Fold each of these.
Amino acid sequence: MVDRSSPATPAGFASPSAAQNATAKRAFPERGVPVIVGINRIGLWSLYMKEVRRFLKVQTQTIWAPAVTTLLFLVIFTVALGRSGREVLGVPFATFVAPGLIVMGMMQNAFANSSFSLLSGKIQGTIIDLLMPPLSNGELMAGIVLAAITRAIAVGFTVAIAMALWPGVSLGAAHPWAIVWFGLMGATMLALLGLATSIWAEKFDHNAAITNFVIAPLSLLSGTFYVIDNLAPAFQAVSRLNPFFYVISGFRFGFLGESDIGNTNMAVIHSAIGMGVFNLLLGYVTYRLLKSGWKIKN
């Protein structure tokens, strides 16, 4: 009579059950032990590339069209206000207004990119694709914001090239650090504001309302086409409460070496520090809003 309860195992070989247990211990951690420790780099990179490829797939609309629109602004305001060799801050009007238009295009497109991500998911019912992957709230926010900044940089370079070819515009870098810093701060500010808007909005009309009644007025009334010294003292005080003013004037300072922020370079440096602090506060508020799950997970 043969005992089948414990089949014989050839010498030098482990039993199948022992080998499977050893493999399982190597492949799967104990319950409660996190599989991903630290930053989920692969997940963050995947989200970032997904967002970048989304706007690159329609780059005619997301990159080239803003360049054409911004160039039309330059043409119209140069013809209307820049005749007879008019100069502002010691340079021709076209050279004065070009940096402001570049960073304004960057900011508006950063907002457009980040405000679309979560909102489209909520409307189309695909937001689960963003919430289910093993991404923390910080990683989710970072992926969306970084992609929006990438689009802003692409638009900025495209607009700058188009304007550099326009007659009467001279784009020289007097202070490169200011160009980089204020450009990034402006794009980051609008990317965070766009993400907060997409959390709050329930339909595209809500997003359009923020664009038309908040972003557009703050952009156009920020000193893009004029210096605030020409305004009455009350309106100058209002302009100095507008964060867009510091971004546009600081960005212009990087090209021209002159700005209407203050009479000294230290005023521009203080504005640069202030924009950094403002973005940190805005980032914290946006993170807490995203972490709460308000209008996303409820």
Amino acid sequence: MYQIILCTCPDKNSALTIANALVDEQLAACVNIQDSVTSVYQWQGERQQDQEVMMIIKSTHSLFAAIEERITALHPYDVAEIIALDIQQGNEAYLNWIDSMVTKQ
């Protein structure tokens, strides 16, 4: 029912733009922004190494499609990393708070 969605961005400003949109539109209850993660990956046949910003988005399973659509519309990358992990357990009061902060779908 609840999910953590991970998404990297090239900089803090793009992460803040996306985070604010998700929270303002009640798609996410909370977005943590972690500065300076190092990403090593292959892109267009070449190994890349970049400093990125990681967003940790807390929401519900039912809102994933809307979150993915909104991130894709706002994200500067051609292919945005958007990965959802189901929350198996958590503080009941915190999970109830997530419910109260997001749109019901």
Amino acid sequence: MNAPMVHTPVIREADLADRGEAEAIEAFVAANEGEVFHRPLWLQAIAHGTGNSVRGLIAERGGRLAGWLPLSDVHSPLFGRALVSSGFGVGGGVLAARDDDARRLCRAAEELAGRLCAASVELRGGSAPADWTTISGKHANFAAELAADDETQLLAIPRKARAEVRKGLKHDLTVTTGTAETDRAAHFAVYAQSVRNLGTPVFPRTLFDAVLDRFGDDADILTVRQGELPVASVLSLYHRETVMPFWGGGTWSARGLRANERMYYELMTHARRRGCTRFDFGRSKTGSGPYAFKKNWGFTPAPLTYHEWSPPGTAPRNIDPTDAGYSAKIALWKRLPLPVANRLGPWIARGLG
């Protein structure tokens, strides 16, 4: 009896401009329970919204798709160049059923980085060859199942955090959801102020618009207003019956109004009505304020492991805001007038990835 033929996979760059290829990869991601950041739709939105190009790699075995590595080619004069999986996301990495296919995709990413003179390949999840650098303990993710109804959801929040939510519910605030221009403008105004207050440059509004335009019903904005003034707002993604509040924040006045607490509770109830069963509170840096906030809501931290590779003799880029070298810059950014921060921020942030 002849031994079965073993097909060596063909590794090549994906052409997401080809609708058929993009749809095939979308189907592969769905069949393999990939993350939202594995979706070609995400890469396309990032490319359109930030100007960074898509460089995804696919493995084909026996003429069939066997592996996928979504890559954003992120570059800027301030931070250098990197291939990131996935750009501007908190997840990604190689999606493949076979370990050898995953390794081949990583090796192909090394070659691509060399041709592009990129300082590093960064995988936010998945597996990587043993000679890559593993980064763990810096971030954790927070996710939990949604409750069956509004009251049960409220009671599932630990007592101290629940008391803050109840204070927010007592204030005369209005809550809206949508993707219209009024929703987008309110979200950007709130989010830009929020990240400026944290000392972080804001992403270009074109990024938020691109995600909303491409994701359709799989993304929306929930905004909390005091009168006509938006005080808290979050842009959320929906994927595999899970809601992910991804870009959110509040103004200074949101604190006294408990508008952020109100916002996340309202999002939980809104997502359940949409058919979601899980709430993914997202990634936070270990030991940070958001990390503590999510723990106080009863979410259990799940440590995240990332991987990184750099060409020999090349130092990887450093975009870690907790690095001591950035402390003075962050302090300065917090003092910038908001119009100045909003003018400079998008130019800087589109190179972070």
